[in-house]
Design brief:
The protein has about 100 residues and is mainly α. The chain has four helices and no strands. The chain has a domain of about 60 residues.
Length: about 100
């Protein structure tokens, strides 16, 4: 299953919004950087949780050549997609806690 297939059923925003901080002001570059870092951090956590997840091999009992690499890429892609959509909310909680220290 591709990332496009996973995202196909999700609603798309119909208008472009300006990202704002918790105070309602436009996001500063530092806040954008913090949001990106916390999203990547959450992606790594999700990837670690899914690390033992194995996709079934198509060839029966014997693993296909490169299947470990493909499995790793699939887990990383899934984790990144989950984190990009909010994941478990860990990144959002980190932003909420760390945003005041940006000032």
């Amino acid at each position: 299953m591709t990332l496009a297939a996973l995202n196909a059923g999700l609603p798309r925003p119909t208008h472009r919004t300006v990202a704002t901080s918790a105070s309602g002001k436009p996001e500063s570059p530092a806040l954008k950087k913090l949001r990106k870092a916390t999203q990547e951090f959450e992606g790594m956590l999700i990837s670690q949780l899914l690390g033992e997840f194995k996709f079934s091999s198509l060839g029966g009992d014997s693993p296909m050549a490169g299947s470990e690499t493909l499995n790793s890429l699939a887990v990383q892609t899934l984790a990144g997609a989950m984190a990009g959509r909010g994941g478990f909310g860990i990144g959002k909680m980190l932003v909420h806690q760390l945003e005041p220290s940006l000032k």
